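Usage

Read records sequentially. Each one opens with the input sequence:
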Amino acid sequence: MPEKSIREMNEWEKMHYSLAARTFHASLMSSFILGLVAMIIGLSLYTLALVNSFIRESFMLSRNAAAILERTVDVKSYADKVMEVYRSQSAEEMNQIGTETYIERFAQFMDTNDYKTINAVLKIFGQSSDMDAIYLAMYDRDTCAIVYLVDPDQKNMLKPGEWETVSEKGMEKFLRWNGKGSLYEIDKTELYGWLCTSGVPIMGSDGKIAAFVLTDVSLGSIAKNMNSFVIQYSLAIAVVTLLIGYLLSQRIKKSLVAPINEIADASLLYMLDRKQGKAGYDHFTNLNIKTGDEVENLSLIIADMAKDISDYEENLTKITAEKERISMELSLATRIQGDMLPNIFPAFPEKKEFDIYASMDPAREVGGDFYDFFLVDDDHLCLVMADVSGKGIPAALFMMASKIILANNAMSGYSPAKILEKTNMAICSNNREEMFVTVWIGILELSTGKLTAANAGHEYPVLKHPDGQFALYKDKHGFVLGGMDGMKYKEYEIQMLPGSKLFLYTDGVPEATDKDNNMFGTDRMLASLNKNPDGDAYDIMVTMRTDIDAFVKEALQFDDLTMMCLEYKGKKDD
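and closes with the structure output:
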């Protein structure tokens, strides 16, 4: 792949990396590979046929020579005498092969009429063929060797009694031949390289093999006979490969490269028209590509796309303006919602009996969670923590209505349970969307520290007494507000002592989730609260938010995150 983009290339580089050039190279390479495969297959088939031809010829040569020898010479008698002397040698004497002493042991056999007759017959057959060698030999199982009996080769004649080690597999193949098919073995030798040896056994009167007439042909000789064919075949394949590659590249250029270049030229003109404020999609509609394939389909799709883009841009200004208007309204809604919640701290500087801090971070522009705290009278502080079902604008609207109703009922002097009952009745009277809200509400008597509270399906509050640790206060839950009309709620009392702390929250705190969908959980929440249990309300809230952020890290906020912390300090003497 080129390191430069096409816009950074000069003309020569563009030509070199063009689709047309790549098409030609790919076509030529494909044709070359196809030609190479065809050449390999052709040469393999020709080699196999040539080898089989030599095997048949050498086998027939051995069989004809064996037939003549069986009629003219007592091969068994001659072979038995030579093998008798061979087998009578000690291992040390056998290893003297090639020495004058070794040759002298078998010299007597070269003067016999049988040797001379066999040698003459084999010589005639050898001269009448293209085989490398024809000779008489016998295999010896005890020494796993081939023992030469008669070799008419004048250049490299092997005298009677000379031997060579052979593979046991090849030897047994000859000794156990059943007379069917051609008898041959291809093996690599130290002296002659790869040889194909064909042979026919000569049987004695006792039905046992007396000797073999063997014919050798070197695979190197076969290769020489292939030279002319290989050259002619290779030239033919090369010409055909180049012709196919050229025709294929021209075909691809016409059906693929040229239409793509037309599309590219039309795209360039379209881009120039767009810069001048023109529609320009007629450059694509004027294309006349009739390839009947994906390229033609691409040109039609691009023409439709250009037309759709033009139509879309006509509405883009309206859509953008509408989005900006919605964004401004959402921003305004966020500010309004934030202003509806107590957000000035310290909240009641003149009140020394308590310290309070709260925060609400919506998951979207606006949220469904809310908190509230206000003085019902000079000695009673109302605390509210609530979570509306759902998110976004519907939840925010429901949240505002619920907050107002709760505050109105609280200011009427009702107890926490009665406040929830009245609020539930008001919500259920007109709740076609069937939304609901969970609420924890408590009224703290500042002079005594008595906290009267009720829970409508909300999270457990967390309480800390002086010199103690933060722990869940598992109060009894009533049904959620807005879920069912006519519900009754129970309230309970907690005695707050100077130094006692109360932590309220929505489910967004324990259910804060990291990128692996692990939740922050109640245990981590309590551990965070107990890092600095004696800190003031603000410090405890900061520690909690820091720990949540460290846990969640880059994961998106899934739910509204709302918390409140109250420290009761008791009645101060004037």
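Summary fields computed downstream for this record:
- The longest strand covers residues 193-203.
- The chain has a mean pLDDT of 84.
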